[in-house]
Design a protein that fits this description.
This protein is an alpha+beta fold. The protein has two domains: 75 residues, OB fold (Dihydrolipoamide Acetyltransferase, E2P) (Beta Barrel); 141 residues, no CATH class. Helices cover 38% and strands 19% of the residues. The chain is built from seven helices and five strands, in the order βββββααααααα. A five-stranded mixed beta barrel has the order 1-2-3-5-4. It is globular and about 55 Å long.
């Protein structure tokens, strides 16, 4: 069955000389894996740039339920990133978030609210000029709500102090956490967080995700992100 859907690129690996196996998160079907042939050939109709992490696409897919590998018919890129590929802080955040999504989004079922959140979040990342160094922290907190793992204790920071993963943090980190939980993803520039505190909160949030989701403790991009903000 041929159908159209918006999609977000999570991951790709090369297959053979010129093909790719691409993992997408789609509006209509959740997570899908697709074979894309001839991407690196001169006659390819799909530019390799379409398969960079977090690229936003419109796809026509020959979809068959329970098929392990779907086939793409057409692709279009309705929103071309103008800063993410060229600003190292943004591209590093994009790589990190793509890996987080690749690990956490495993269901082959539609979740329109989650998809809309992701689609618009990455548009924000591309267009925002200030506060980018806080973006991934705000994203993780908001994303945890869609996964059903947002720590309710964070609504009452005193209660959160009793969570082992957030225990023994300096007061500066607690204040930053308070600010993050009350700040919109669209306004990361409203929070000032020192580099040291930002790194600490990132480590604690990843550790919290790892308590609920297998694989989060093996993020390859985490160290890269830490180095970028050092």
């Amino acid at each position: 069955m041929l159908n159209k859907t918006q999609a977000i690129v999570l991951h790709h690996i090369r297959y053979g000389d010129s093909s790719l196996i691409v993992t997408l998160y789609t509006e209509r079907h959740g997570r899908l894996t697709c074979m894309v042939s001839g991407v690196h050939s001169k006659r390819s109709k799909f530019p390799p740039t379409y398969f960079q992490p977090l690229t936003l696409l419109e796809a026509e897919i020959y979809y068959k339920q329970n098929r392990e590998m779907q086939r793409l018919k057409e692709l279009a890129c309705p929103f071309h990133y103008t800063t993410i590929p060229f600003i190292i802080t943004k591209s590093s955040i994009a790589l990190f978030l793509a890996e987080v999504l690749y690990i956490t989004l495993r269901e082959e079922e539609a979740n329109p609210a989650l998809f809309s959140f992701l689609f618009h979040s990455f548009q924000l990342l591309d267009t925002k000029e200030e506060g980018i160094s806080n973006f991934h922290l705000l994203f993780l907190l908001n994303f945890s709500k869609y996964l059903g793992i947002f720590p309710a204790e964070l609504a009452h920071i005193q209660g959160a102090r009793e969570l082992s993963v957030f225990s023994h943090m300096p007061e500066e980190a607690w204040q930053a956490l308070v600010d993050l939980t009350s700040t919109s993803l669209a306004a990361p520039e409203k929070i000032f967080i020192s580099q040291k505190t930002r790194t600490l909160l990132l480590e604690r949030l990843v550790r919290y995700f790892a308590l609920h989701i297998d694989g989060m403790d093996r993020l390859k991009s985490l160290q890269v992100l830490k180095e970028i903000f050092n």
